[in-house]
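Structure, all two chains, one model.
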Amino acid sequence: MNDNDQDDPLLDSCLQEVLGECAPPDLTTRIMAAWRSGKPTASGLKDRSSAVPRLNRQGWTIAAFAAIAALVLLGLFLRRNPRESTHSESAPSNLAASNSAVSPSPAGNESTREGSKAPTSDSPSAKQPARASSVPPVESIVAAPVAESPQPREQVPPQKPSGATASALPARKSDREVISFVNAELASRWQEAGVTPAPPASDAEWCRRLFIRVLGRIPDANDELKPFVASSAPNKRQKLVERLLSEEAYVLEYARHWSVIWSNALIGRGGGRAGSLASREGLEQYFRKALVYNKSFAEIVTELLTATGAGKPGSDDYNPAVNFLLDGLDPESTLATSRVSRVFLGQQLQCAQCHSHPSQDWSQEHYWSLNAFLRQMKAEQAGGRAKLVSATSASRTNRAGEIFYETPTGLLKAAAPRFLDGTRPDASAQEGNLDRRQALAEWIVRSEYMPRALVNRLWSHFFGYGFTRAVDDMGPITSQSDATVLNQLAQQFAAHNFDLRLAMQWIALSDAFARSSKGTSLASRDAPELGGGALFSRYYSRPMQAEEVYNSLVQSAKIRKQAGNSQELEQARVAWLAQFSRQLGDDGSGESRTSLKGNPPTIMAHGDLMRRAVSSHDGGLLKSLVQSNMKFDRKVEHLFLAALSRQPTRREQAVAAKILENGKGNEATALEDIWWAVLNSNEVILDH
Amino acid sequence: MRETELDPVRLIQLYQAGVWRYLRVLGCEASLADDLTQETFLAILNRPFEDVSPTATSAYLRKTALHLYISHHRRTGRMRTEADIENLDQGWTAWAGSDGGDAALDHLRDCLNELTDRARRALEMRFRDERSRSEIAAELEITEHGAKNLMQRAKQQLRECVEHKLQ
């Protein structure tokens, strides 16, 4: 036959059966005979029904190595103290889990996990021999057997992490009440830990860190820092927070900065770039608009999860919200599952994609049950532009919304859409009518996972550390006070309609945020950088993110005013940031922090940005200072205020004077040198 | 979970057609499809198995058959691209349902009757009589290019028709 007409194998094979009368034969007798006799097929295919599989040369080689390894291990074991334990307290469950992973029965896996259904004596698993040895037996070394007993629906009881039971919205508290509660809880924590909190930060220090956290840049020395420091208004800090979050002069800047933060969190720094179906510009544009109008984060989550349309600006049916799901969209939506669970639920479920989570109670069933909600979408391409569409027509094999996955033992299982708390979507909805993404969004917004995950993330942004070690893998919280603060903030966040600005306001006006970064000797117990839990008794100094450094540099050197148009500025910003970003590949946790910690100063010291910043000829701060009539030491003050938000010390002024003297009184040169030194100091990139 | 007592004969009778058709979609000749279908059931029957639902069992059998198909082609040194296999697997999964494709084929018969006589005749000559394109063109008094277009359009119509009926 002419192959050009056989271009649709599926339809062609059906036509051959219908028209060509090439129908499936009845092989029952043949199969039964072969099963009983154990003979190979006529084609020479080996009959794998033999109880003792024959090994090929490769198999024998592997078996020999395994036997040698077993002997070596046995020898090592016999030489060691038999009482010595190398396992941590958590090892027994992990060891049991790993043993059960080689058990042929999936029910055997569940019997090792707390709260899971134990296999009954009637179930197949109970009849399987246990495999407890650390060296797999010879039979398991042969080519992987085909999928074993299918158990498509595993009765996994709902796994609820602590404090995650759904409840009605709590009563709203006033801002003052929320902040007071947080302050009181943290204070009691410090007392419990025997920690003396750091002294209060100065106005200048507090103002600087607030600008960095909210706007992503340091304050302008003349227009913002000095007036704030000079003000004697009793509630000036509250007023400043409100201004930065809501005032027209700042709201665009706030939205621009946080659109980058949220885009980084959702699709990673490399997401939406060249080669991606998504548009990073589109996603940031979505967030800018949402943040300007202070859209409820519940609404944002819903829009991101249910969006359809084209992702690139200028496309027909353009919907910038689709860029979240469109980025990295794969046929099984595994990346989307990972991102949704990390960012919106604070759970790193991707570990459970291939096996049970190593440290939390998430199983593959949980992962794939959540994944099932995200399988009703696909990307379509037209004219070089990608579009996210809903695959609303359920396939005939998925009337119940089931999807299939493979366990580590090769077993094929099915998972139906089910939320992490074990509940299912509305049972009354027919599968063909159920919009799974909408159902997922509604559940996420109602759940207690989301507000806790978001508050934890915001807290981590402001303090450098959240209430849990990883903001996207929350797990149990060891400190009761921390759990109380997080739960209270989360509840109030939900009660106040997931108002992001309000949550930031509570955090920024907390007592903890107002502490100095200079610790006392007793506060040294509060050292999360050394691995302990964070007590928030002092402000944790840390390097700024690359975006924050860039914005601060441009701000302090006043480069923006004499630079090109906004597009050129944006291109320059992206190019500069690209020097620091490393795309490590996205396994679903592509939220790489691009800080300057540990980076060589070369980029800062010799880049084009720095050259423009320290030039006294190209315009900007330095040029205006050189041309001004101020005394030299006042000019030096201006430089320090502009870059470091503080006055120079006497010693620093003395050094500056020495520089001027060595330069034979050439102020322009001296100021360039001083400015270069200040901008390349560690302090300038530090948020303290 | 309720254990279903396994009847091998019943298992084979219920699912063999679906497995066989699946292997044919993947590209097996009829004789190879026979062999691999047998291998599939032998693999199943020699391990603990629970026929929980037609959907799950069908999927499990297809997965097993796919593994055997891939293994066979590796041994013979012939392999298709992963994308091809994946697309075919997904396509058949959508068509076959849990009845092995019986309903899809019934729909196909109905859809054939909705074609024009010329289009149906062309496909019959192709798939039943195994005539070449030039012979079909001569029979229908059209060019070869015209015969090709006629059959392609007809197949497209059939596909849309079947998929519409399957929804």
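Chain B touches chain A through 79 residues (CB under 8 Å).
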